[in-house]
Structure formats: structure tokens, C-alpha cells
TrEMBL record:
Signal peptide: none annotated. Pfam families: Bac_transf. InterPro entries: Bact_transf. Belongs to the bacterial sugar transferase family. It comes from Chitinibacter bivalviorum. Keywords: Transferase. The keyword Transferase applies. The keyword Phosphoprotein does not apply. One of its GO terms (molecular function) is phosphotransferase activity, for other substituted phosphate groups. This is Sugar transferase. Residues 45-231 form the Bacterial sugar transferase domain.
Amino acid sequence: MISKINTPNLRELEQRFSNPARRRLMVLLVRANLRLKHSFEFGVRRTWDVLAASLALVLGWPLWLLLALCIKLSDGGPILYWQQRVGYRGQLFAFPKFRSMRIDADQCKSRLLNQHADQRTFKSRNDPRITRIGRWLRRFSLDEVPQLWCVLKGEMTLVGPRPPLPNEVSLYGLHARQRLEITPGLTCIWQISGRSNIAFDGQLALDLKYIRERNIALDLRILLLTLPAVFRGHGAY
């Protein structure tokens, strides 16, 4: 038989913590509890980040090698494309992708940006810089595979807001900068909800909703829904 648990009401709590020293103790206990919760969740996320990234890189190496050869043979250019991206609390890190664009893609970008309405995020369905193999890589998000190395290093995690470019962050307001308060991810909530078909403001709203509600169960749900979203290829360009 379970005995009844007496829960103090609000008045009793106010009386119990009316003393300033007791109030300070209560604040310290609450903060310690939050740190413990966050430490536990960080440990769980970091463990599955390392395990999942290691398994994907090791088990998929024949496919990754084949993709690298196809990219190299297509135009003789480099296999990987490196960018500077903005990570946790504004820290810059090297961000690799399988190259999906022409070698002169960066030189052409400024002209294309002038034709793009919202420069806080730049995605074009009919981007002329994308190569034939690059279009296929992007459809199934295979160009993102090298970022598993960033996950292993702890610069990224499996689930979190996608890392923006420095010039995109320079256009952020205070509201949008909240995206940088957690480690960026390989997949995120808007990537399973429409991917690049969602405008920047929609992506931001979904990212901030994720940050507010973030927990292990939500991360698992996003990971499980990512695979069918990738295979459908909807909104990938």
C-alpha cells in the first residue's frame, strides 16, 4: 500500500523559503538539478553521436569511396568542399561536404545572391552551379556525409539546428541568434518537415521550438523521421 504524499501548497513554500539564506539555497538546488539534467542528456547525446558517426563512416566506406571517385572523375576537381560555418555560441569551424558544385561556384555566388530575396539563407532549386552528380548527391543528402567527422570531433551533433554561414549570421537579429545557443546538428526538425522548401522564418520558428522542447525522445523521433525524408528527397536541392 502506497502512503499518501503530502505536497506543500504555495503559502507553505513561501513561508518555508522566506529566509534569504533558504531562498539562496533553493536557487542553488534548482540550478544544480538543471546542470545534472543537462549533463546527463549531454552524456547520452555525445555517446550516441560517437557511436553512430563511427558506425556510419566505417560500414559505409565502400559507398563513400565510390562517391569520391565519381566526383573526382566528373570534372577533375577536389572531392571535398570546405566552408567556415558558425557553431555553438558563434565559434567558427571547418565544415566539409562532398563537392556538389562547379569548381568556380563561389565566384558565381555573389551574382546569384542579388537575385535571391532572403539572403539570410541561400538555396535555389535551379542553381546553375550544381553538377550532374551533385544534384543526385543533394537529393539524398549524401553530400552531407563528411560532416560525420565534425560530429566525431564534437563540433556538431546528430540533431540540432543546421550551422549557418558567417555572412548569414551577420544578418541575424537577436531573435535568430538564439539558434547559436546549442551545438549545430546534422539533421533538424525542419529538414523532416519540408527541408529547403521552408522559408527562413519558418526554419527559425521550428529551430527555436526545438530548442525550447529539446529532449532525448524528441531527438530520437527526428532521427527516425530523417531516413524516410532523405529517401523521399522532397525539398532537397
